[in-house]
Specification:
The structure holds 2 protein chains of 2 kinds. By secondary structure, chain A is an alpha+beta fold. Helix content of chain A is 30%, strand content 34%. The chains are: A alpha+beta, B alpha+beta. At the A-B interface, helix 1, helix 8 and helix 11 of A face helix 10 of B.
Amino acid sequence: MAYLSLGADHTWILHISPNLYHKTQKKSSLLKVGAKEINWRTKLSMKFPEPNSLFTKVKLTTKKGALFAGPFLGILTVSRGADFKGNKNNFIDIIQAAKEFGAFVFVFTVEEINWNTGTTGAFFYHEGKKEWIHLKDLPLPNVVYNRIPYREDEQKQYVHNALNRLQNIPELHLYNSQFFNKWALYGVLSRNPNVSKWIPESRLLNSLEDLEQLAKVHRLLYLKPIEGKAGIGIMSIIHKQDSYLLKIPSQQRTLTHRFSTIDSLWKYLKPRLIENYIVQQGVSLLTHKDCRFDIRVLIQKDENGLWQLSGVGIRVAGRGGITTHVPRGGSIASPEEVLLPHLGQDGYEQKMKELKMTVLEIANALSEHDPSLGEMSMDIGLTKEGRFWFFEANAKPMKFDEPPIRRTSLKRIIQYAQYLSDFTTKGEMQGAGQTGHTRAVTKG
Amino acid sequence: MESKRVQIQLLQSQQYNGIIISTDLCKELGIDSQKNIYVQLGERKVWTRILKTKRTDLSIIIPTSLRTELNIPFGGKLHVIVENDTLRIGPVVGILTTGIQVKDHQLISQRASFFKHLLSAQKEESLFYFLFTPADVNWSNKIVSGLFLSQNNGVAVWRRGSIPFPDVVYNRIPDRGSERTASVQDFKTKLANLTQAQMFNPTFFNKWAIHQQLVNHPTVGQYIPETFHSPNLNTIQMMLKKYRLVYLKPVGGSLGLGILRITFKPGEGYFCRYNNGSNNILRRYRNLSSLIATHLPRQRMNNYLVQQGISLIKYEDRPLDFRVHVHKNRENQWVVAAIAAKIAGEGSVTTHVRTGGTVLSGQELLKEVYYSQGEYFAEQVRECTIQLAEVIETKLKQNIGELGFDIGIDTKGRIWMFEANSRPGRSIFKYDSFKEADQRSIHLIVDYSRYLSKFN
């Protein structure tokens, strides 16, 4: 256990245990930091950082006779003038969690990376002052947690180039390198025999024929934009005996259009499909107080690099609504509250085990496709017959509001970063040792 | 696979020959109800039929014939888990001790309240939990006559119950002498060779052996004071020159008995503090040889250690050290259950309550001593003890579920480990500030037993 803090004279201070402090001769130490193993001169202290200073907990490890402090975990986003884009409260939570679990977390933007020196400008949240402090010359981090909030930004050429350059730094680990492409996702999963049973039938929606193919087999269809986010743009089609009902959710209520033939439906629909869409088999789900609901799970890699289920929440759609996204009229409920009445105590426990198995299996299938994945959320449907269906996965999950899930999720973000960059507890134990550590500190 | 909590009901009936399980429960446990199955309780394993019932509740009914074969003492909520073709019921956890008797359903032992307290953890758990001695085991059929605790109108009642040899044995043999007796040694040999049972905290620690394991360890060596075994006069003299303060401790001692604190003041001589069993005494000697000759006749030096003295931090002018009680949890990870600050009595060599010491919350006291740095020091202490526990467990290759460390902080803020106890006392838990920690501690013993017996 050690801390890094920024002293009043703008030098960095490494806070080590009194035992180690008294063993070292010099009261300064040369650290290796970040993916490029930059040298950092620090003063040594045996005290806890000044409460009003800028500080975080870090782990120490020795490699090749040098002392490494870290991990440095950079939350990557893009600039907005002198500021940065993204959910600031979420970033603050991660920085605060790192103070407890051990990592130097900062927010940095693609625009501020200095490729020549292997450093970057960055923002750190000052807990005492309750404000963001801009720091110069921080090392390029060991782990980059990609939280670029918009696909449009991520697809810009210079952002794309920067992501590629980061990916090519040998000791740098990119965590969730990109958004999922919904269509590629269905392709990967429906071709995988371990998980295809949970994947609803889906097609790219390019022509009337695509629509007809699925409408023949399924009474309920969903139309989803490939690069959709937060349920925006999702429509549904219900095939009744002599008509097709198209439901389009809008701000306040859901608009329903009736068509007598599929051709007239397609004529109406085609000019409105300004993005790329998929058409997907709809399933008839269990309801909670007459509203449909999704099971939303958070899955993360843990301190050993293994997938774990971090939490299960329920998102209930507004009355008659298609999407369960909270900002679009959905609401939050607990799994017990919603599922217990349907399943009973024993059935509930059984189903939750099955859910865990299902989503971990899907997560494994997806990480074969993209090994950089460290976390994702999934929307899972449960039918009246007790069958699970996979609807969607998001590689940049929105934050879960349930406090226990939130806490687990923050802990795992930090611990997985420690795992990726070899700053696990075991690494630290060797490094903080009497011989290794002391030698490294005194050398500096 | 996770274990399940179910109600085990005993049925007074000769009519049925098998185990009665509802179809729903069979499905949930993944049992093929068409086949026969092994039912296991502790060391007893019985091959039997499954009798299906349409009842939907999560209970298992055991009729008389199976009850007799299985030697199940009584019904109640228990854990079940299926491994291959075996349905295990349990866990069966026995606390091993010696020197106890039962008269009129009351436990006759100096440590009766200690055992009563440990067993009280069964209330919110689901297990067979009992006390037994090596003499209570019938090795020919591996049945134990255990002492079970129950409440009758708020009064503790101890009853004998016959049960198969347990899955897990928590060793609480009271002292090194009893541990060495033939009956205990014989018990250990038989446990290791004749049963699948897991025992935790199987031995008392030898202070010197522990020291040897830790002193050169890369992580935890930094916490170990310099120590020599069977010192001669020269060694003690050298240590006094280096540290000005040394301790002489018996290798196999406990409760702080026989410890000498020796200081050297140039021009004044050698001072020796000790406790003679009732008082704290200070004596001065002109030279070291007369001090040693008085207190440690030659033959006893072989059982002694000389240890670097640490100038401990003080509170209200009295030195203090810490008892840190750590446990393994159900995930087999170490957790700190309590940090107690022990403040030395007036003129005492040690911080034992027996010698006039007092006990306070370690966290609170560290805040009194270090103000805003207090929590930081508490964190250092927690980290140091968990590292120590991990290393001791790895080095000794034993199941260790509980440890008590004597930890000191010196005036420079360094942390030192004086002693690791494998049968830590629970006296700190009597104080009000440790009531919560006390409950956590007794439940962690059950948690670790569940880990060892694979009833997770």
